[in-house]
Amino acid sequence: MKFAPFWKLDTFANGRQVWRFSAPEAFKNFTEKDWQTDAGRKFLAEMATEFLFDKTANKNSADLIYRQQKLAENGSGFKSSNKEKGAFFNAVDFYKKLQDPAGFWPGDYGGPLFLAPGLVIAAHVTESPLPAPHATLIKQYMLNHQNDDGGWGLHIEGPSTMFGTVLQYVSLRILGMDADAPAVQRARKWIKKHGGATMVPLWGKFYLALLGVYEWAGINSLLPEMLLLPGQLPIHPSNYWCHARMVYVPMAYCYGHKVKAKPSKFLSELREELYLGLYSDVDWRGARNNCAGTDMYYPQSGVLKVFNKLLNVYERIPVRPLRKKALNFALDYINAEDEQTNFIDIGPVNQVMNTVCVWHAYGKDDERFKKHVERWYDYLWLAEDGMKMNGYNGSQFWDTVFATQAILEGGGEKDFADVIAKANRFIVDTQVKVEVKDHKKFYRHDSVGGWAFSNSEHGWPITDCTADGLKTALMLRDLKMFKPEEQVSDKMLQEAASLILSFQNKKGGWASYEKTRGPEWLEALNPSEVFGNIMIDYSYTECSSACIQALLKFRKAFPSFKKREIERSIEQGISFILSQQKEDGSWYGSWAVCFTYGTWFAVEALVAVMKSDLKPVKQEEIKRALNNAASFLKSKQREDGGWGENFESCIVKQYVHHHHSQVINTSWALLSLMAMEYADKSVIERGIELLQSKQLPTGDFAQEGISGVFNHNCAITYTAYRNVFPIWALGRYEKKFGIKKSNGTLINYDLIH
Ligand code: LAN
Hints:
single chain; 753 residues; mainly alpha; 2 domains; two-stranded antiparallel ribbon; 4% strand; binds lanosterol
């Protein structure tokens, strides 16, 4: 690696992580112009070749840049593992080397292919081009992930879609590739073969319209006035899932103002490249409801079609004062979200859209615009396949609480006390301590006591992040390793528990960020075409299980705090989980792949309640549910002793085997079986043997298939999972049965620790 050393991950105590480029001496202080000189171009081109990524064996990169740099920094990273100590110890001993001094584990959270194009387009529209070294590696990433047929998927593992292809096409052109470069030509061929860019789904149309290479007339009304409706009306955006809401607001702003990049020769060329005929001949109105078959996951409902027709009629002569008022409110809303999240915003989509809005409203010299641009880099991640845009500003908190629980499960606090101490610090620091400004005015749920998925600068608390934060904080408290002032205080533990209670839905389940607000029929208005279940925040098995587990643990530590309320809440939560079980004994997982994940969560909650002194009303039902879950898991065990689930499972909602066993699915299945003390131990033994056989000499595990998902259709990378879940499963095993030698004989665990 000659060029990677010029890239360095800057990390901060609050979990912020930003890749910085520091050029070698000869290129120091290079301006954008300098990079265009022969010497500059040569340097960049050579750098790009170092990030050529061979995806024939696996489309997933393995986060090698960060990992190799960190291991090199720690010196001892490449030593092979300690045979005496067993697989759990070695897995943790490796993983600890990747921990940041601030206590979290930085890592790749890429995967979706519609995120970086949003940034590239926003940078172009706002005439704030990305620095050449970043642009070079973003381009390389896109080229690396081009499918053999010339197109790009919705995410790195997916088949080509119009959405993925049009967005990468436009991005590659903006990033300086010629229209006749072979990769660009192949992409254009794909686009034309599938009907041209009028077939791109709504979000693609939106981005193209911002660029001025698609007409706003070709988009159904996004009616900013929706924000002025009474909040009680289900279609008011305050009732949507927060991600849909926070993306709707800047989209409506841009639509209302018909925001558009300054015309240029380049953009006129682009206009003529994307469609089947001449740009001037495109039937924009006729294109509004077009969507390529390759992309279609959630077709427009009849209700949405009627709704769109009505709105489009209004759009011919919108009521001026109303429009103005709505757009002003949208801008207030954007400013509030920016301020509440320190310009990180809830996610990568509204971050860049808000950037464009703020640029449109206040111009490039405004502080707010500059703050936005600074935060772009919080979303960019560098790996051996180039520079990608993460699905969030990182998964810092989530990975930290999982890693901590996994290490504690195997009694790792003795050998890894410093790892645990750092994680504890991070958990204490990232809890939300002050209420978000104007949170009621902008439809935010309370936040104090909660934890976000990434860090506190981002600050949107999530039900299960809060629950796992609370659970982990209680586990750390049980260790009695820390002074009271070093750990989450009793008061803040209680705040977390109260917040969890306040998040619970009437029917007993928990959604992701807020309570479910709108009715289920709102999904009929989902206009995205590519995502399912985005309109409201549904109750999820995973979120509900995490909340139940946390409340059960909390109740033990604080038996009299909101006693009745907590007991009722757990009881109702359990009913929800039971109601979600499928015929075959499994649970669908909404946030990772897939049934092994959902089942693991459900089983943990059911086992935890059965083990507690709270005697649930539905004991018999729980026992039956656990038995069925066991049969399900057993039925999916493979010849080699492992479990392997394909991302397809999430889409088709049926278990789909992967080509190979996967360490992550195997770990979830094993954790579930061990939690319920599955009687046929050979099933567990074979699974553990598979995990051990897959452990690399360093203690690491290879990156296999992609493991995260959202909205049923888009995959997302969780780099930490390949380490954390084997650690967890091995820890549980060794704690119970002792260290298993590779030849199958056990070593007594107590003699070693
Ligand atoms: C996430 C990341 C975290 C994830 C868990 C906490 C793991 C989960 O248990 C609950 C749901 C949640 C919070 C989640 C929801 C959807 C997110 C925010 C993401 C997968 C990260 C990216 C994704 C977001 C929607 C991507 C942008 C796309 C849109 C459709 C707006």
